[in-house]
Write a structure and sequence with these properties.
It is a single chain. The chain is α+β, with helices and mostly antiparallel strands and 100 residues long. It has a domain of 56 residues. The chain has 2 helices and 5 strands. The protein has a 5-stranded mixed sheet, with helices on one face. The chain is globular, with a radius of gyration of 15 Å. It starts with a strand and ends with a helix.
Length: 100
């Protein structure tokens, strides 16, 4: 099982987003949303992660992030997307392009 580290990108009253790192490589991203009884997550991972690797990662997210959040949890529902990152886009980036 790989050793994962989670780098928080943002947090609200009912959600959190983390970059997932193994060693010095970013291997994915997870966004979690907390309801009164269910935690929903969207997990995005690279193309090279196996099904077993995805299950290990889900287990690690559950143990390290969900359980430590101290929220009621009747279920943990994870939607997984597997592929490659195309880019990160923001309004700031588009404004800079327009100025040029």
């Amino acid at each position: 099982m790989a050793e994962y580290q989670f780098e928080r990108e943002c947090r609200t009253a009912h959600s959190e987003a983390y970059l997932i790192v193994a060693g010095d490589e970013q291997v994915g991203k997870v966004d979690m949303h907390f309801t009164p009884s269910i935690v929903y997550a969207t997990l995005c991972v690279g193309e090279n992660i196996t099904q077993d690797g995805i299950q290990d990662l889900i287990d690690t997210i559950d143990e390290d992030l969900v359980m430590s959040a101290n929220v009621a949890r009747d279920d943990f529902i994870v939607t997984v997307y597997q592929g490659r990152e195309v880019g990160v886009f923001s309004d700031e980036e588009f404004e800079e392009e327009e100025e040029e």
